[in-house]
Amino acid sequence: MRALVPNEYSTVLPLLETIRNQAVYALAVIDGTQQGSVYVNEGKQITSAFITSSGGFYGVAGDETNDAFVQDIIQYMNDESNHPDFFALGIYTEAWENRMDAYPIQYSRKISRTYYRFNQERFKEFYNEFVQSYGKSAITLQKHFEYYPLELDIATKYREHFYPYYKLVWPTAEKFCAHGIGHFIMKDEELISVCTSPYVGGGYAEIDIITVEEFQQRGLASKLGMLFIQDCLEQNLTPNWSCHTDNGASNKLAQKLGFEKIGEHSMYWYHA
């Protein structure tokens, strides 16, 4: 396979047409919003693509019957020097899964990932019911907790002390603030619940929600999710959701916030 240069990345977009909202990390790389690489098959006609992001999310698209291309992907995956501390290889068709299953991928286990599509009408129904019941201020004003939008100081604290993974997906706090979305809740000057975007590209913003265990089941994630989605709508972005199939809480919250399940696909997840 051969690597494209950044101004050629968009040539693979037709191969992603049916999986765009399942591979927002790939769209972020193609847009140049976030760092990564795009590899394609040898030859003049591009029929297969392998896209990697600096955050470790990778994906394949296009024709899976090119043996040389598939073997190049396997060689790439089995070279530890190619990866950050983590990788997740997305597989979006049964044909690609059958091809990849024929080869061992070191330090990985195959998991199931569930993908959703945003339904704005369903979200509006949930949002309006919440506002009618509790008032709009209840989303950000919370007893004993402090809410913060995304800005440089909190982005730095988040990347440095709460979730260092965001140092991979966003190379600087400034770039995270410029291109990302984030909402945060703190208690006693410590982050306890966050809703942020690890990837933004192709008109989509991927949702990432974390709540410290002792503060779960208090509605914090729902409130931050509403703020995230409202941010997306104001910026003409489509919020996007995917999660492990066995993550019951995440799947439940996705549907609560107006997302509709569109399917499940395998993913090779890093496992030391």
From TrEMBL:
Q: Which protein, by its recorded name, is this?
A: Acetyltransferase
The N-acetyltransferase domain is annotated at 145-272
Q: Which SUPFAM superfamilies match?
A: Acyl-CoA N-acyltransferases (Nat)
Q: What is the lineage of its organism?
A: Bacteria, Bacillati, Bacillota, Bacilli, Bacillales
List, alphabetically, the PROSITE patterns matched. GNAT
By its UniProt entry, which Pfam families does this protein fall under?
Answer: GNAT_acetyltran
